[in-house]
Design goal:
It is a single chain. By secondary structure, this protein is an alpha+beta fold. Residues 51-56 and 62-69 have low confidence and may be disordered. 32% of the residues are buried. The protein has 7 helices and 7 strands; from the N terminus they run αβββαααββββααα. The longest helix is centred in the C-terminal third of the chain and has 18 residues, at 127-144. Helices cover 43% and strands 13% of the residues. A 3-stranded antiparallel β-sheet has the order 3-5-6. It has a two-stranded antiparallel sheet with strand order 1-2.
Length: 171
């Protein structure tokens, strides 16, 4: 609990889009976070929706009116936004520990990508830990989104661009 809250605070201070912390009760083991209304990236990429017909929103209801907007978001680079947010997180030396498209939400009514579920997150300056984070995401793309696997190269390209001079140590 404390580690998750610390990781979220460090991300928030570094400009990473994560849920805001609303309350922490360490004695009771409760962490209250902002509700992120929107869709998981998993549901927006090919092969990721549990039901291939229609993606569902965070309330679990059919959000068919938004389908055109989702297609535009995917077409114009949700994978690039993924790379940027992960790079910002890694520049803050936070390792997510469970980077999957299920742990990324597109906030309803905006193009903001929010990283969620920091239960396995920790602080590390090691390049190897950041590389493992990226490897986990690559495997998630391969297993959950086989048709979208080429998009992972776009994730890495935007990650590299955001890291700038720090990329050479990871590459």
């Amino acid at each position: 609990l404390a580690g998750e809250a610390r990781a979220l605070m460090r991300c928030l201070r570094s400009g990473v889009n994560v849920p805001g912390i609303r309350m922490v009760d360490a004695a009771e083991g409760v962490l209250g976070l902002e509700w992120i209304g929107g869709k998981a990236v998993r549901a927006l990429l090919p092969g990721g929706s549990e039901e291939d017909s229609v993606a569902q929103n965070s309330e679990g209801t059919d959000d068919g009116a938004d389908e055109c907007g989702d297609a535009v978001l995917v077409e114009f680079g949700v994978e690039r936004v993924v790379g940027v947010e992960i790079a910002k997180m890694h520049l803050a030396d936070i390792i997510h520990g469970d980077l999957t498209t299920s742990n990324m939400m597109l906030r309803k009514g905006s193009k903001d990508l929010v990283l969620i579920d920091f239960g396995l997150a920790y602080h590390s300056t090691l390049v190897e830990d950041k590389a493992v984070d990226l490897y986990v995401l690559k495997r998630a793309f391969a297993s959950t989104h086989p048709d979208a696997e080429p998009l992972f190269s776009s994730v890495l390209a935007s990650y590299e661009k955001r890291l700038g001079k720090h990329w050479s140590t990871i590459n």
